[in-house]
Amino acid sequence: xxxxxxLSDCIAYYQTYHLTKHKYQWRANALKYFDCFPLDQLxxxxxxxxxxxxxxxxxxxxxxxxxxFARAAINRVNSDxxxxxxxxxxxVKFVEQDYIPSYLKQEDYQKLLQSAKELNYxxxxxxxxxxxxxxxxxxxxxxxxxxxxxxxKKQFIVRNCWSKSKKTLYKYLNQTALEVLERRSxxxxxxxxxxxxxxxKPIDSYHKCFVKLRQHAGVxxxxxxxxxxxxxxxxxxxxxxxxxxxLLGHRDVTTTQRYAHLNYETYCKALEVIG
Length: 275
What we know:
The structure is a single chain. With about 280 residues, the protein is mainly alpha-helical. The protein has two domains: about 5-80; about 105-225, Orthogonal Bundle (hpI Integrase, Chain A), CATH 1.10.443. The protein is about 50% helix and about 5% strand. The strands form two sheets. Strands 1-2-3 form a three-stranded antiparallel sheet, with no helix packed on it. The chain has a two-stranded antiparallel ribbon with strand order 4-5. Strand 4 (about 195) and strand 5 (about 200) form a beta hairpin. Helix 1 (about 5-20) crosses helix 4 (about 60-80) and helix 6 (about 120-135) packs antiparallel against helix 8. It starts with 6 loop residues before the first helix and ends with a helix.
């Protein structure tokens, strides 16, 4: 009997013995979804189910990188231990389009918030506000601890295991985000801002509620689109692209440049110089 009963066993081995600079822990965390299945029972349709759930939060390109990571982990275990573990991640790649970030118009964002109130999704309402007002990745807000929230400085700290750089980020809070956190602080029930009272651990997902919320609001979006909306609204407000880069925590401004086309008024004014 081998020691690799679940996907996370393969990933842990792969991280320990074959990865040096980056352990890609954020991918390992996302792939824990598959640990509810024994490795020898994992099938291709489980991967497709994962895609359906994960695509609510992230792009197909991100899912492809996670699938590739899982595939590499199993293949490495098979190679090193001369095993023949089934690998349902082989030859799986979801269609990627030329990437243009999708973002919400302000009226659609308000529809989401109004629908959350009407459906009494109070936690989801606050989660959406913090995503849109801080530009955090969904998992960064879900795992935010109260010890990292500093009301006096109007900021919270993301001890970042979710980005490629693993860089610690300081997220600055506008009045809207600050009010949400202050209100939640008065009724805190655990060490995390979004604690699951049943498990006393950070909330795992708002996926099911978000599906109902979007249907009620008549708005198509993903949680990650709220991060894109944050960046897009800043660019449309003529905030310098390097400031947006720093606020998002991008390592390279070329990543942030994908939003630059939204600042069309600045470009039009620039052309007036020669016209």
